[in-house]
Write a structure and sequence with these properties.
Layout: H1 3-7, H2 14-40, E1 43-52, E2 65-74, E3 80-82, E4 86-92, E5 95-102, E6 105-107, E7 111-120, H3 128-139, E8 144-152, E9 155-163, E10 171-172, E11 175-176
Antiparallel strand pairs: 1-2, 1-10, 2-7, 3-6, 4-5, 4-8, 8-9, 9-11
The structure holds 2-acetamido-2-deoxy-beta-D-glucopyranose (NAG).
Protein backbone atom coordinates (compact mmCIF):
# COMPACT_ATOMS: atom_id res chain seq x y z
CA UNK A 1 0.00 0.00 0.00
CA UNK A 2 1.79 3.11 -1.16
CA UNK A 3 -0.92 5.72 -1.54
CA UNK A 4 -1.04 6.74 2.15
CA UNK A 5 2.66 7.11 2.16
CA UNK A 6 2.71 9.23 -0.93
CA UNK A 7 0.03 11.68 0.14
CA UNK A 8 0.65 11.37 3.86
CA UNK A 9 -1.45 13.71 5.95
CA UNK A 10 -1.17 17.43 6.44
CA UNK A 11 0.46 17.24 9.85
CA UNK A 12 3.45 15.66 8.20
CA UNK A 13 3.63 18.54 5.75
CA UNK A 14 3.77 21.78 7.69
CA UNK A 15 5.07 23.54 4.58
CA UNK A 16 1.89 22.73 2.65
CA UNK A 17 -0.25 24.05 5.49
CA UNK A 18 1.83 27.19 5.84
CA UNK A 19 1.77 27.77 2.09
CA UNK A 20 -2.01 27.34 1.94
CA UNK A 21 -2.45 29.68 4.89
CA UNK A 22 -0.29 32.36 3.30
CA UNK A 23 -2.15 31.97 0.01
CA UNK A 24 -5.49 32.42 1.79
CA UNK A 25 -4.25 35.49 3.61
CA UNK A 26 -2.98 37.00 0.38
CA UNK A 27 -6.23 36.32 -1.45
CA UNK A 28 -8.21 37.75 1.43
CA UNK A 29 -5.94 40.77 1.52
CA UNK A 30 -6.39 41.45 -2.21
CA UNK A 31 -10.13 41.05 -1.93
CA UNK A 32 -10.30 43.52 0.94
CA UNK A 33 -8.10 45.88 -1.01
CA UNK A 34 -10.44 45.77 -3.99
CA UNK A 35 -13.50 46.16 -1.84
CA UNK A 36 -12.05 49.23 -0.21
CA UNK A 37 -11.05 51.04 -3.36
CA UNK A 38 -14.40 52.67 -4.16
CA UNK A 39 -14.59 54.18 -0.69
CA UNK A 40 -11.24 55.82 -1.06
CA UNK A 41 -12.08 57.33 -4.42
CA UNK A 42 -14.23 60.44 -4.39
CA UNK A 43 -17.53 60.69 -6.24
CA UNK A 44 -17.34 62.58 -9.55
CA UNK A 45 -19.78 64.50 -11.75
CA UNK A 46 -19.37 66.61 -14.84
CA UNK A 47 -21.18 69.74 -15.92
CA UNK A 48 -20.92 71.45 -19.27
CA UNK A 49 -21.20 75.19 -18.63
CA UNK A 50 -20.23 76.33 -22.14
CA UNK A 51 -19.67 74.95 -25.62
CA UNK A 52 -18.29 76.73 -28.67
CA UNK A 53 -17.33 75.89 -32.23
CA UNK A 54 -19.85 73.15 -32.97
CA UNK A 55 -19.94 74.26 -36.58
CA UNK A 56 -20.05 72.37 -39.83
CA UNK A 57 -16.44 71.52 -40.59
CA UNK A 58 -16.53 72.91 -44.11
CA UNK A 59 -15.89 76.60 -43.58
CA UNK A 60 -15.66 76.40 -39.78
CA UNK A 61 -13.56 79.10 -38.18
CA UNK A 62 -13.13 77.70 -34.66
CA UNK A 63 -12.25 74.38 -33.07
CA UNK A 64 -14.91 72.67 -30.96
CA UNK A 65 -14.35 73.80 -27.37
CA UNK A 66 -16.05 72.43 -24.28
CA UNK A 67 -15.89 74.12 -20.90
CA UNK A 68 -16.32 71.30 -18.44
CA UNK A 69 -16.58 71.39 -14.68
CA UNK A 70 -15.45 68.22 -12.95
CA UNK A 71 -17.02 68.10 -9.50
CA UNK A 72 -15.13 66.00 -6.99
CA UNK A 73 -16.82 64.95 -3.76
CA UNK A 74 -14.20 63.71 -1.33
CA UNK A 75 -16.23 61.80 1.23
CA UNK A 76 -13.12 60.72 3.11
CA UNK A 77 -11.77 62.74 6.02
CA UNK A 78 -8.30 62.68 4.45
CA UNK A 79 -7.39 64.97 1.55
CA UNK A 80 -7.56 63.28 -1.86
CA UNK A 81 -4.60 64.01 -4.06
CA UNK A 82 -4.64 63.33 -7.77
CA UNK A 83 -1.01 63.27 -8.78
CA UNK A 84 -1.61 63.74 -12.52
CA UNK A 85 -1.32 63.87 -15.38
CA UNK A 86 -4.80 62.85 -16.44
CA UNK A 87 -6.65 63.01 -19.68
CA UNK A 88 -10.11 64.18 -20.69
CA UNK A 89 -11.74 63.22 -23.99
CA UNK A 90 -15.10 64.52 -25.19
CA UNK A 91 -16.77 62.31 -27.78
CA UNK A 92 -19.98 62.43 -29.77
CA UNK A 93 -21.37 59.30 -31.42
CA UNK A 94 -18.16 57.49 -30.59
CA UNK A 95 -15.94 60.07 -32.27
CA UNK A 96 -13.53 62.07 -30.11
CA UNK A 97 -14.08 65.79 -30.68
CA UNK A 98 -11.87 67.44 -28.10
CA UNK A 99 -9.39 66.61 -25.39
CA UNK A 100 -7.56 68.18 -22.49
CA UNK A 101 -4.78 67.25 -20.13
CA UNK A 102 -5.57 67.23 -16.46
CA UNK A 103 -2.98 68.54 -14.04
CA UNK A 104 -2.63 67.42 -10.45
CA UNK A 105 -5.09 68.67 -7.88
CA UNK A 106 -5.98 68.06 -4.24
CA UNK A 107 -9.40 67.99 -2.64
CA UNK A 108 -9.42 68.51 1.15
CA UNK A 109 -11.22 65.96 3.31
CA UNK A 110 -15.02 66.11 3.27
CA UNK A 111 -15.08 68.83 0.64
CA UNK A 112 -16.65 69.09 -2.83
CA UNK A 113 -14.34 70.86 -5.29
CA UNK A 114 -14.80 72.00 -8.87
CA UNK A 115 -12.01 71.44 -11.36
CA UNK A 116 -12.42 73.61 -14.50
CA UNK A 117 -11.36 71.94 -17.73
CA UNK A 118 -11.29 73.36 -21.26
CA UNK A 119 -11.23 70.57 -23.85
CA UNK A 120 -10.49 71.52 -27.40
CA UNK A 121 -9.17 70.20 -30.68
CA UNK A 122 -6.60 71.12 -33.27
CA UNK A 123 -9.21 70.73 -36.04
CA UNK A 124 -11.88 73.28 -36.92
CA UNK A 125 -15.55 72.53 -36.47
CA UNK A 126 -17.09 69.06 -36.68
CA UNK A 127 -16.88 66.53 -39.48
CA UNK A 128 -19.91 67.32 -41.71
CA UNK A 129 -21.49 63.95 -41.07
CA UNK A 130 -21.36 64.43 -37.30
CA UNK A 131 -22.63 67.98 -37.57
CA UNK A 132 -25.62 66.79 -39.60
CA UNK A 133 -26.29 64.00 -37.16
CA UNK A 134 -26.23 66.45 -34.25
CA UNK A 135 -28.52 68.87 -36.06
CA UNK A 136 -31.03 66.17 -36.89
CA UNK A 137 -31.04 65.08 -33.24
CA UNK A 138 -31.78 68.65 -32.25
CA UNK A 139 -34.54 68.98 -34.83
CA UNK A 140 -36.15 65.87 -33.39
CA UNK A 141 -35.70 67.43 -29.95
CA UNK A 142 -33.62 64.49 -28.84
CA UNK A 143 -31.02 64.83 -26.16
CA UNK A 144 -27.58 65.27 -27.66
CA UNK A 145 -25.40 63.14 -25.43
CA UNK A 146 -21.71 63.69 -25.14
CA UNK A 147 -19.37 61.19 -23.55
CA UNK A 148 -16.81 62.81 -21.27
CA UNK A 149 -14.14 60.31 -20.35
CA UNK A 150 -11.63 61.22 -17.72
CA UNK A 151 -8.58 59.05 -17.09
CA UNK A 152 -7.17 59.48 -13.60
CA UNK A 153 -4.48 57.32 -11.99
CA UNK A 154 -5.53 54.16 -13.85
CA UNK A 155 -9.28 54.51 -13.42
CA UNK A 156 -11.64 55.94 -15.96
CA UNK A 157 -14.66 58.10 -15.23
CA UNK A 158 -17.34 57.31 -17.75
CA UNK A 159 -19.29 60.57 -17.68
CA UNK A 160 -22.19 61.81 -19.75
CA UNK A 161 -23.15 65.40 -20.47
CA UNK A 162 -26.21 66.64 -22.34
CA UNK A 163 -25.68 69.41 -24.83
CA UNK A 164 -27.86 72.53 -24.58
CA UNK A 165 -30.57 70.84 -22.78
CA UNK A 166 -32.43 69.53 -19.89
CA UNK A 167 -31.56 67.98 -17.60
CA UNK A 168 -28.45 70.09 -17.17
CA UNK A 169 -26.96 67.61 -14.76
CA UNK A 170 -24.73 67.10 -12.98
CA UNK A 171 -24.57 63.42 -13.73
CA UNK A 172 -22.61 61.14 -11.45
CA UNK A 173 -19.82 59.42 -13.38
CA UNK A 174 -19.57 55.65 -13.20
CA UNK A 175 -16.00 54.63 -12.38
CA UNK A 176 -14.30 51.93 -14.41
CA UNK A 177 -11.47 50.05 -12.83
CA UNK A 178 -9.22 47.84 -14.79
CA UNK A 179 -5.91 47.58 -16.46
CA UNK A 180 -4.18 50.89 -16.76
CA UNK A 181 -5.67 52.70 -19.71
CA UNK A 182 -3.12 53.38 -22.36
CA UNK A 183 -3.47 56.94 -23.51
CA UNK A 184 -1.50 56.35 -26.67
CA UNK A 185 -3.70 53.52 -27.94
CA UNK A 186 -6.03 55.09 -30.51
CA UNK A 187 -8.67 52.41 -29.89
CA UNK A 188 -9.04 53.82 -26.38
CA UNK A 189 -10.09 57.08 -27.98
CA UNK A 190 -13.17 55.62 -29.65
CA UNK A 191 -15.92 55.65 -27.09
CA UNK A 192 -19.30 54.58 -28.32
CA UNK A 193 -22.06 56.48 -26.59
CA UNK A 194 -25.52 55.15 -25.95
C1 LIG B 1 -14.40 78.67 -21.09
O1 LIG B 1 -13.35 78.70 -20.13
C2 LIG B 1 -12.30 79.60 -20.46
C3 LIG B 1 -11.20 79.42 -19.45
O2 LIG B 1 -11.69 79.45 -18.14
C4 LIG B 1 -12.85 81.02 -20.52
O3 LIG B 1 -11.84 81.90 -20.87
C5 LIG B 1 -13.97 81.08 -21.54
O4 LIG B 1 -14.56 82.35 -21.52
C6 LIG B 1 -15.02 80.04 -21.26
N1 LIG B 1 -15.97 80.03 -22.36
C7 LIG B 1 -17.24 80.35 -22.22
C8 LIG B 1 -18.05 80.36 -23.46
O5 LIG B 1 -17.72 80.59 -21.11
Amino acid sequence: MTIDKEYGNLEEHPCVVAFAAILCLLLFGFTMHDMKRPEYLPEFWVKLPAVEGLERGTGASRPPTFNITLRVNNRDSEPWHFKGPGRVVVAYAGVPLAHADLAEFTVPGEVISSVPIVATSSGLGLPDELYDRMQSQRRRRERVKLAVHVTLDGVRLWCTAILHGQPRGPFVCPILYGPTFDRTDPRQMMFPII
